[in-house]
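FAQ

Q: What does a record look like?
A: Structure on top, sequence underneath. For example:
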């Protein structure tokens, strides 16, 4: 998934909403003996509603989505019912009307936030299940209702989930290990280089039995992960048993800023394989480092080609995918984004140097390659810098912005669509490989050459695929059937990519299919 991180600015609005009466006869509401909803609820809802109203990719009727949010409270108590008439929002319970509040102006996000809190107050006063619900459960129910009415990629995360999301994107304070739990101990499965754990001499197979003096009995992965993490430069006390030893030792580590690894490299037959699992803030830098390291290995023959494996990559930070593409492109457009908000309008151009020095590149994609992964694949394909192999990608061509709320939760909100350099909209379509491996279980006889026998058909399909703009759904579905989207994590594509990179003439033929498409357009 792709998103930008933006902190929401809260507007201070005068409290001028009349909850009953005004243009219609006043309705007496049930008295509330005490405030049942937290004091910052109105601020949270106003921040969320304002963001949706201003930034969502399509115009939004805030009254309609507010009603969908209130209906979300029925996930807490199915007896709750919310509806609207021409001028009121109506709350019913078990078939009887409880409250009727006058609707605010269509663009009054502050007013709709007040309506939401007032209705939640009356729901809590009426429903035992609602009284037992926390404010966080209320926020989740309302925002899930609001955002599910928009699109599949807009969503809400509470404070704890949001904290974990930010850690995935931006890093976290930790010691630098991957682990599994076994017999009430942390068993280290990987030690990340140049981290506190690495500098302390931790090894794969070592076991951590106590964290800050606390036993790990009955603890799950999430709890243990939270125990190991903390503010950067804070200390954590561990009791560790080295692999194949019985005696433990006590170690105090100072947590450092850890960014999860997303790029994994290996080299065989002078071909550099680079698996990219997602795009976080360190992905492009890590990719560059691994390429440079492979190029400068002593007593090692020069590289003959690169494989960028994006299969199963769900995406991540848009700017990281742009930076990754820029590592291989010296000029030309990488991607453009278009939405309703002015800040969502961008065109990203290449302006770097080709870190691979013109070496041939094969990009692997499958049905789970999405978003930022598709941006990288499309840029290298459209700029005729790489051959794309695999199956049609997922087709998630929208950009999400992340908006932090006053409760430390966050809304991930769709705010733009992106277009490939050739001008086609990827959403619902995806990337069409030049070499399609859908349905294959083994390499055909004659190796990679048999993939290129239907080159005229491939050129025609790519030409239609890249029709500028958003194609009708029926046409997109037809095009996608030319290379069915599948989940592929087999070695077949890796071996096929190696074969192609080792057969320079065949690689040239495959790359020409993209060039021939360009010639058709001219």
């Amino acid at each position: 998934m792709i998103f930008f991180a933006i902190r929401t600015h809260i507007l201070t609005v005068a409290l001028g909403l009349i909850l009953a009466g005004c243009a219609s006869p006043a309705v007496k509401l049930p008295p509330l003996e005490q405030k049942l909803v937290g004091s910052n609820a109105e601020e949270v809802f106003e921040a969320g509603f304002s963001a949706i109203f201003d930034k969502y990719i399509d115009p939004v009727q805030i009254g309609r989505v507010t009603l969908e949010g209130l209906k979300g409270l029925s996930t807490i108590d199915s007896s709750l019912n919310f509806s609207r008439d021409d001028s009121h929002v109506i709350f019913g319970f078990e078939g009887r009307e409880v409250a009727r509040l006058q609707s605010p102006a269509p663009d009054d996000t502050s007013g709709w936030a007040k309506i939401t809190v007032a209705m939640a107050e009356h729901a809590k006063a009426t429903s035992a299940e609602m009284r037992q619900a926390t404010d966080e459960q209320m926020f989740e129910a309302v925002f899930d209702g609001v955002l599910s009415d928009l699109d599949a990629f807009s969503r809400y995360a509470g404070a704890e989930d949001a904290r974990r999301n930010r850690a995935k994107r931006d890093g976290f304070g930790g010691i630098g290990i991957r682990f599994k739990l076994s017999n009430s101990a942390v068993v280290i499965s990987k030690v990340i280089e140049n981290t506190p754990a690495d500098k302390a001499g931790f090894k794969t197979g070592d076991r951590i039995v106590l964290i800050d003096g606390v036993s790990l009995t009955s603890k799950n992965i999430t709890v243990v992960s939270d125990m190991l993490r903390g503010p950067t430069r804070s200390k954590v006390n561990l009791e560790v048993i080295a692999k194949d030893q019985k005696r433990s030792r006590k170690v105090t580590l100072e947590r450092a800023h850890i960014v999860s690894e997303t790029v994994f490299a290996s080299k065989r037959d002078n071909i550099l394989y680079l698996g990219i699992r997602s795009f976080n803030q360190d992905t492009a830098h890590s990719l560059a480092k691994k390429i440079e390291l492979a190029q400068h290995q002593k007593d090692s023959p020069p590289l003959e080609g690169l494989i960028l494996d994006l299969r199963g990559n769900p995406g991540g930070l848009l700017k990281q995918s742009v930076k990754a593409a820029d590592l291989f492109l010296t000029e030309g457009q990488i991607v453009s984004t278009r939405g309703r908000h002015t800040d969502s309008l961008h065109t990203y151009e290449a302006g770097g140097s080709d870190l691979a020095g013109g070496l041939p590149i094969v990009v692997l994609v499958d049905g789970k390659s999405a978003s930022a992964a598709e941006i990288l694949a499309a840029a290298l394909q459209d700029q005729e810098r790489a051959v794309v192999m695999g199956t049609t990608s997922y087709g998630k061509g929208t950009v999400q912005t992340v908006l932090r709320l006053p409760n430390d939760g966050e809304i991930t909100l769709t705010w733009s669509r992106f277009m490939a350099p050739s001008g086609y909209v990827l959403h619902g379509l995806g990337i069409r490989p030049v070499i399609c491996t859908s349905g294959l279980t083994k390499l055909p006889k004659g190796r990679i050459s048999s993939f290129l026998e239907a080159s005229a058909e491939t050129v025609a399909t790519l030409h239609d695929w890249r029709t500028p703009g958003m194609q009708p759904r029926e046409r997109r579905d037809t095009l996608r059937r030319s290379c069915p989207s599948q989940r592929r994590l087999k070695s077949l594509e890796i071996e096929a990519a190696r074969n192609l990179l080792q057969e320079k003439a065949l690689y040239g033929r495959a790359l020409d299919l993209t060039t021939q498409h360009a010639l058709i357009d001219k």
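Q: Is there anything notable about this one?
A: Residues 335 and 348 are 6 Å apart (CA to CA).
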